[in-house]
Amino acid sequence: MKHVIALDVGGTGMKAALVGPDGELLHQARRPTGRERGPDAVVADILDFAAELHAHGIDRHGEAASAAGVAVPGIVDEAEGVAVYAANLGWRDVPLRALLTERLGGIPVALGHDVRTGGLAEGRIGAGQGADRFLFVPLGTGIAGAIGIDGRVEAGAHGFAGEIGHIVVRPGGAPCPCGQRGCLERFASAAAVSEAWAAACGDPGADAADCAKAVESGDVRAGQVWQEAVDAFADGLVTALTLLDPRALIIGGGLAEAGETLFTPLREAVRRRVTFQKLPSLVPAALGDTAGCLGAGLLAWDLIDDDITAPLNPSNPSYPSEVTT
Ligand SMILES: [Zn+2]
Predict the structure, then answer these.
(1) Cα of 11 to ligand 1 centre, how many Å?
(2) First-to-last CA distance in the chain?
(3) Count of domains forming the chain
(4) What are the DSSP E strand ranges found in the chain?
(5) Pairing of strands 248-252, 133-138
(6) In angstroms, rounded to a whole number, what is the distance separating the alpha carbons of residues 60 and 63?
(7) Residue 143 Cα, ligand 1 centroid: separation in angstroms?
(8) What is the 3-state secondary structure (H, E, C) of 229-273?
(9) Measured in angstroms, how far is the CA atom of residue 191 from the centroid of ligand 1?
(10) CA 226 to ligand 1 center in whole angstroms
């Protein structure tokens, strides 16, 4: 059966799959990234992992994978297929696409940025299904974003498009590792909420999930911490939607697991801030931590898919809303 290799490399774990033409997962595997062993060992493991998947496809599905897609963190040059830099993995200028192409016998390989690749999956087959224009924002240790336009995700001229976490929402506010002050990430990431709630409640081990629970039980201090994060996030989102006019805002990551504890006040905070702008739908991400792997599969299929009747092909006439290639 025709299939592709999908691989999502994270700071702690790698997720892989063989993906069929309709997006079905034929095989899945996980293993630790093992970053403590250094970048060269991680790169060697990525190549080994991909080669094992390639062999598995031949053994179990009767033919070699037609293409591969790989998502990695940090700064990624998707056009050149180079993993430029990742602080958590310690690598610089790794020509991953060329290395994988060589290791996998010359099949086409796509290299993607982790958040943009996850956003691609959320937009096409996850929470944004049907949205021709969307913004995907995962709230985790940091805050990043993926701008979806007509079935693909915009990388920008230099690979930095969508970095909503570094929009300044509180000028002169808390310093950010990027060098600026008052960045959104310092107020509305899961890490920032954890830090603020730990300070407010006096328990250094308390985190954002604990804060959400305290909000739900009516704790006033938790409510204040939470609302400050929601207000900062709404300020950042309104800047983004004013520029992008998206049909859907898809919010993921650890903080979104609070569900309506986040979404109800967030919708209200965004609604209060817009004037002429059209309100997009504001929805939780649907694919969880498999988004990156599913997106890597989509990148791979996009390299080879000339069958416009395929459900995952954005050229398909029945593909959501007015998609062109
Ligand atoms: Zn910043």
Answers:
(1) 20
(2) 27
(3) 2
(4) 4-9, 13-19, 25-32, 68-72, 75-77, 82-86, 91-94, 109-113, 133-138, 146-149, 152-154, 248-252, 281-284
(5) parallel
(6) 8
(7) 10
(8) HHHHHHHHHHHHHHHHCCCEEEEECHHHHHCHHHHHHHHHHHHHH
(9) 14
(10) 20
Separation of alpha carbons 196 and 187, rounded Å? 9
Q: What is the CA 272 to chain-centroid distance, rounded?
A: 27
Same domain, 68 and 163: no
**What would the two tokens of residue 288 be?**
């969880």
- Could you give the 3-state DSSP secondary structure of residue 209? helix
Q: Which domain holds residue 141?
A: 128-284
**Cα(139) to centroid(ligand 1), Å:** 14
Q: How far is the CA of 89 from the centre of ligand 1 (A)?
A: 20
Taking Cα atoms as reference points, which of 149, 80, 107 lies closest to residue 4? 107
113 CA from centroid of ligand 1 (Å): 19
What separation in Å is there between the alpha carbon of 87 and the centre of ligand 1? 15
pLDDT at position 318, please? Answer: 55
Tell me, in angstroms, the distance from the centre of ligand 1 to residue 167's CA: 7
* pLDDT score recorded for residue 151: 87
Neighbours of 264 (CB within 10 A): 11
- Same domain for 275 and 295: no
How many angstroms does the Cα of residue 92 sit away from the middle of ligand 1?
21
Residue 22: per-residue pLDDT: 86
The reply to whether 140 falls in a domain is: yes
Considering the entire predicted model, what is its pTM?
0.90
At 308 the pLDDT is 53
CATH classification at residue 79: 3.30.420.40
**In this structure, is residue 33 part of a structural domain?**
yes
Ranges of residues in the chain whose predicted pLDDT is under 70: 307-325
> Measured between alpha carbons, how far is 50 from 54 in angstroms, rounded to an integer?
6
Residue 53 is predicted with a pLDDT of: 97
CA of 186 to the centre of ligand 1 (A): 7
In angstroms, the CA 325 to CA 318 distance is 14
In the reported structure, the alpha carbon of residue 279 is separated from the centroid of ligand 1 by a whole-number distance in angstroms of 26
Q: Rounded to the nearest whole angstrom, what is the distance from the C-alpha of residue 179 to the centroid of ligand 1?
A: 6
